Amino acid sequence: MQVHLQKSSVVSGQTIVLSGSKSESNRLLLLQKLFPQLVVENIADSDDVVAMQEGLSTKTDVVHVHHAGTAMRFLTAYFALCQNQTVVLEGSERMHNRPIAPLVDALGALGAQITYTAKEGFPPLRIDGIQAEGGTVEIPATISSQYISALLLVGTRLKKGITLQLLGEITSRPYIEMTLKILQELGVKTSFEGQTIVVAPLHQIQQTHFTVEADWSSASYYYSLLALSPLGTTLRLGKYKKISLQGDSILPEIYAKLGVETIFENEDYIRLTKIAEAQSSFEADFNDTPDLAQTVVVSCFGLGIACHIQGLHTLKIKETDRLVALQNELAKLGGHLIVTADSLTLTEHRSTITTLPAIHTYQDHRMAMAFAPLVIQMDLLINEAEVVSKSYPTFWNDLRKIGIQAIESK
To answer: Is the dihedral of CA 277, 220, 92, 116 positive or negative?
Structure first.
């Protein structure tokens, strides 16, 4: 599917209620499988979450997670500890090129029996479930926090719990802290000191109901729309908590620098208002929140300001190499982006566009949604626009609700 975004404006004062966080949802779905008495409400409706649900409920010996990276990592840990069960865990072609060796090695140290069925260090995996006791394992912290969260979640059902010794600089720390906070709310005793995380075994959860907060990553696209809109434009988003488990809840602080004010209202709604012009340039370290990088860079491009973001080394192993993808697509619009292994730098240059630009999404949902806010300034095409279903299936419909002209075609 291709979406033609026709230059249009946000209808000020509209309200959008977003689906639950896929990060919270997938963690809670795994815990619900481990502790069946847990009731979870406002589960996200994204492809990633559907893949997780299908994987956990499968009756077959082959589980396919498509592009769902979280499901691949979490299900690897889950099936490794399912005694007397053998499954082959596979995904899309891109998934088969995303590394998983650090998690497999850590599980192997606990006694897990996992073999690579194709390329060493990458899915697909054959997993022969065992009964493990737990204990202490080492794992690199520089590649993906999902490896760490996967181990922490299943550690709750291990006789000895689990102790992780993290090696190297910790990336995406808020996602690890999200996992620990959810475990704590359910009654798990945890500690996170220096490079060591301890999760004790849990036999009975203390909290049996959990409501998933709306996804802050999804809110980022509305922040970008507001940043590019005229002064005084407002939007109301729900439902968000002032004290959030999600690292991307730093959005109000980030976009305050780009002229967007956030006010928390009653009943867990936030009101966004474009109140000022953006600062002359933007610079930040996104080591803790790398998923926001694409949106913020496109916002800065639309605002015509320079941008430098570091701490982005994990973006090269996402759905695509997001740094190169950004570089390619911004170049179509006249943007000059310099990328390194872990950073990007956007200059203020922009050339005149003479043809309708078509943004390639590289099977990456965030590429599609990050570029969409430029509709405030220009017409553009989004190729493979259906990819948004990975995290936000109703994205294009929600844009239409607030006045954006988005025309779909096959």
So the answer is: positive
Pairing of strands 162-167, 196-199: antiparallel
Q: How many Å separate Cα 338 from the centre of its chain?
A: 24
Backbone angles phi, psi at 328, to 5 degrees: -65, -45
pTM of the model: 0.89
Question: 236 near 273, Cβ under 8 Å?
Answer: no
In the chain, the N- to C-terminal Cα span, in Å, equals 5
248, 291, 364, 398: the active-site residue: 291
Helix H or strand E encompassing 296: helix 293-303
Query: Which run of H or of E encompasses 269?
Result: strand 269-274
291 belongs to the catalytic site = yes
Helix, strand or coil, per DSSP, at residue 344: strand
Q: Element (H or E) spanning 71, and its range?
A: helix 69-80
Determine the Cα–Cα distance for residues 100 and 94; give it in Å rounded to an integer: 13
Cα–Cα nearest to 264, from 249, 254, 281 = 249
- pLDDT 10s digits, 68-106: 999 999 999 999 999 999 999 999 998 999 999 999 999
Q: For residue 285, give the H/E element and its range.
A: strand 281-285
Phi, psi angle pair for 35, to nearest 5°: -130, 85
27-28-31-36 Cα dihedral, nearest 10 degrees: -160
